Amino acid sequence: MYDPNIPADHADLTGAMFRGQFNGLKDLIDALQSITGAVVDDVNTLPAGDPAAVDLSVVDGVLHFSFSIPQGVDGSNGTPFAAAVVDEVNTLPSGEPATVEASFDGSTVHLIFGIPAGADGNSGNDGPPFASAVVDAVNTLPAGEPATVESSFDGSQVHLTFGIPAGADGTSGNDGAPGEVSLQQLDDAIASTSASSNGVNLLGMSVSDPPTQGEMQAIADKLDELITALRR
C-alpha cells in the first residue's frame, strides 16, 4: 500500500521500500474510474455580487456539474432621444439587399437607407388608340383663381373640361380733355359748306345743233336741281 510518509528522513533506501511504494501508486491508479462524458445537471442564479460556484461529482465515469452564477447588477437608465431623422435614401443596383445605417448624436437618431432599384419590367401592350379629343365644357371661374383642366378617357375619346378665370374689372378712366374744336364750332363750320351733290343724277342727254327749246329747258331744270341739292 502506498504510504506518503515513506521514505522517512535519513532512512536507508532499499529496493523493497521502492517496490512497495510504486506498487501502492499503481493500485491507486488502477482504482481510478475512466471519464466517459460530462453532464451539466443544473445552473442556478445567485444574487448579484455573490461569488460564482461549481459542484462536481463522478457517477459511473460521467462528470456531473452544477453551476451557480450571480445575476448582473441593474444597468443605468439610457439616454432618451427626441426624434429620428432620415438623412439619405440611396438607390442601390437592382438585386442587391437593402441596407440601413444608424447613428446617434445624443438626441437624434440619424438613418441612411439603401434601397435597391426594381428590376426592369416587361414592355406593356400597346394601349387602345383614340380618335379625337372633345371639349365637354368651358367654365368661367372667379377672377384671380387658377385655371383648371379635367380630362377623362372613355376608350376612344379624350374628354376635356376647362375652367378659365374671368378677367379683373378694369378701373374707370378719367374724362378726356376737351378737343381743340367744340361741337358748336363744328356745326357752324358744316353749315357754311355745300351739301353733297351725290343725290343729283346725271343729265345724260345729247344736245342737237342748234339746241331745241326742250333741250335748253332740261339743262336749266337740272341746274336748278343741282343748286338746290348743294344748299344747306
Write the layout of secondary structure elements.
Elements: H1 15-31, E1 37-46, E2 53-59, E3 62-70, E4 83-92, E5 99-104, E6 108-116, E7 132-141, E8 148-153, E9 157-165, H2 183-191, H3 213-230
Parallel strand pairs: 1-3, 4-6, 7-9
Antiparallel strand pairs: 2-3, 5-6, 8-9
Mean pLDDT across residues: 81
Gap between N and C termini: 175 Å
Unreliable runs: none
Which class best fits the helix and strand makeup? alpha/beta
Query: Count of DSSP helices?
Result: 3
Secondary-structure element order, N to C: HEEEEEEEEEHH
Strand order of the largest sheet: 1-3-2
Helix content: 10-25%
- Beta-strand residue fraction: 25-35%
Number of strands: 9
Shape annotation: rod-shaped
Q: How is the main sheet built?
A: 3 strands, mixed
Evaluate the radius of gyration: 64 Å
